[in-house]
Amino acid sequence: MKQKRLIMMLAVLAAAGAAMAQGNGQAGITEATQLVTGYFDPGTKLVYAVGAIIGLIGGVKVYQKFSSGDPDTSKTASSWFGACIFLIVAATILRSFFL
């Protein structure tokens, strides 16, 4: 008998909580949009910085391979600098697409 009462009370509380939580959510969506768009400028700058660091590391790796006479220097150069260019272009496109 006590279990039935407990289950009934929990069901009533859950239904009341769900009824009070009803709303269109427009304010929450607007606030979330403003927060996300606020992070795009620092995020874009961070991706640019990571791209610059990757470019520097790639330059050092390519120089080391070139100095040692390794035959696949062009493959290494294209992969490192391709990654750097991809980061910069991806950050720019995402920023222009979402803002």
Automatic annotation (TrEMBL):
Signal peptide boundaries: 1-21
Transmembrane segments: 45-64, 76-98
InterPro entries, A to Z: DUF4134 (IPR025408)
Keywords recorded for this protein, A-Z: Membrane, Signal, Transmembrane, Transmembrane helix
One Pfam family, short name: DUF4134
Protein known as: DUF4134 domain-containing protein
